[in-house]
Design a protein that fits this description.
The complex is a heterodimer of chains A (114) and B (119). Chain A is built from no helices and twelve strands. Chain A has strands at residues 3-6, 11-14, 19-21, 23-26, 32-38, 45-50, 56-59, 62-65, 75-77, 86-94, 98-104, 108-113. In chain A, strands 2, 5, 6, 10, 11 and 12 form a six-stranded mixed β-sheet that branches. In chain A, strands 3-9-8-7 form a four-stranded antiparallel β-sheet, with no helix packed on it. In chain B, the strands form two sheets. In chain B, strands 2, 4, 5, 6, 9, 10 and 11 form a seven-stranded mixed β-sheet that branches. Chain B is built from no helices and eleven strands.
């Protein structure tokens, strides 16, 4: 079945530090991969996505590359800010199980301190 | 933008009572809405897919008679937890998409969630 395994947190970094949150997946078909972010008190927001192998999704300084050979979609940012403090969810959708069904990881809480 | 609201944000109820949670798309029409449940330190689990004007499609293991879903309009879906018990305590999240379902992924817009505590 489809599943997403995500690095457990919490993660605490100093401002301007480098961020990596690991995410690996298993899927029946050829999934699309996503990173969602949830700021305190708000709903999940799509941060970035990639729909095929070797695609790189990017937004707000965050990047993730769809690696089919390692079934991974790690989230990276070169220099985090306090405003990046949030919970990050890796997710996939698999056309074979329903294109709008999202499978989520457990979420990783990031806290950035000044 | 595409904003989804949920009401209430937090509810505490006694065991045996029913609780209704509303999910509204504020600035778009949502033909399809989804209901998720999140346990502490666990991922979001899809409970059901709600299509306007038709019966919801429930995921395996979700009791349809316990979690009643109504999608009466293009901007409102409700989840009613009937005869709630402490094990139903959880964080319930809804999402909505602008278009219909299909082969291509349509971005889901999420509500902020509702924390249900059953005493």
């Amino acid at each position: 079945g489809d599943s997403v395994t995500q690095m457990e947190g919490p993660v605490t970094l100093s401002e301007e530090a480098f961020l990596t949150i690991n995410c690996t997946y298993t899927a029946t078909g050829y999934p699309s991969l996503f990173w969602y972010v949830q700021y305190p008190g708000e709903g999940l927001q799509l941060l970035l996505k990639a729909t095929k192998a070797d695609d790189k999704g990017s937004n707000k300084g965050f990047e993730a590359t769809y690696r089919k050979e390692t079934t991974s979609f790690h989230l990276e940012k070169g220099s985090v800010q306090v405003s990046d403090s949030a919970v990050y969810f890796c997710a996939l959708s698999d056309p074979q199980t329903g294109a709008n069904n999202l499978f989520f990881g457990t979420g990783t809480r990031l806290t950035v301190i000044p | 933008g595409a904003v989804v609201s949920q009401h209430p944000s937090r509810v505490i109820c006694k065991s045996g009572t029913s609780v209704k949670i509303e999910c509204r798309s504020l600035d778009f029409q949502a033909t399809t809405m989804f209901w998720y449940r999140q346990f502490p330190k666990k991922s979001l689990m899809l409970m059901a897919t709600s299509n306007e004007g038709s019966k919801a499609t429930y995921e395996q293991g979700v009791e349809k008679d316990k979690f009643l879903i109504n999608h009466a309009s293009l901007t409102l879906s409700t989840l009613t937890v009937t005869s709630a018990h402490p094990e139903d305590s959880s964080f319930y999240i809804c999402s909505a998409i602008k278009g219909g379902t299909g082969l291509l992924y349509n971005e889901q817009f999420f509500g902020p969630g509702t924390r249900l505590t059953v005493l």
